[in-house]
Amino acid sequence: MRVLIFEGDRTVLRPLFREADDSDRAIDGYLQAGEVFVAEDRGELVGELQLVGGESGEVELKSLAVAGDRRGGGVGSALVAAAVERCREQGIRRMIVSTAAADTRNLRFYQLQGFRMLRVERDAFGPDQGYAEGIVIDGIPLRDRIWLDREL
Ligand SMILES: CC(C)(COP(=O)(O)OP(=O)(O)OC[C@H]1O[C@@H](n2cnc3c(N)ncnc32)[C@H](O)[C@@H]1OP(=O)(O)O)[C@@H](O)C(=O)NCCC(=O)NCCS
Predict the structure, then answer these.
(1) Measured between alpha carbons, how far is 47 from 13 in angstroms, rounded to an integer?
(2) pLDDT tens digits for 10-36?
(3) Which residue from 4, 22, 53, 91 puts its CA 20 to 30 A from 83's CA?
(4) CATH 3.40.630.30 for the 2-151 domain, yes or no
(5) How, if at all, do strands 116-121 and 44-53 pair?
(6) What separation in Å is there between the alpha carbon of 106 and the centre of ligand 1?
(7) What residues does each domain of the chain span?
(8) What is the pLDDT of residue 54?
């Protein structure tokens, strides 16, 4: 498995982006933004990580997803490590990320990657933002967004 910057047509990555975000409308708004890293294994794209911003010394980890059958095998951690290394080279000092408060596995993942809780954005996920009514993650309604950050 190797991690590289993706230079191709990002529409092929849309199914992976969709794994990380239930709103097609939201994805439409950022799919083409920033820089995307991909994890490739034997010619297959098994993960993506998107960075947006960076000009002010702060970058947002906007999207991160690993193919369903490859999760728990270190691909996500490798993508984060590659993104952090590149940001450091560019003098970027801080990375922020957000995820659903309902998604305790993601909260665990990001804290294992060195991120710390920053703030809560209530009612960030609703029909107004393109999220269907009634989405539930591990029994918890999808509703609030948690922001985390990490000094680089
Ligand atoms: C979150 C995600 C990117 C992590 O990538 P990964 O390659 O599975 O993670 P790694 O193998 O590097 O790290 C394993 C850790 O990730 C966490 N994790 C989160 N979701 C997981 C999942 N679905 N399967 C396995 N581990 C998961 C666990 O805490 C695990 O540590 P543990 O085994 O000690 O519990 C990946 O699971 C994924 O694509 N999930 C669905 C999309 C998503 O929710 N993206 C984030 C949106 S903000």
Answers:
(1) 9
(2) 999 999 999 999 899 999 999 999 999
(3) 22
(4) yes
(5) unpaired
(6) 6
(7) 2-151
(8) 84
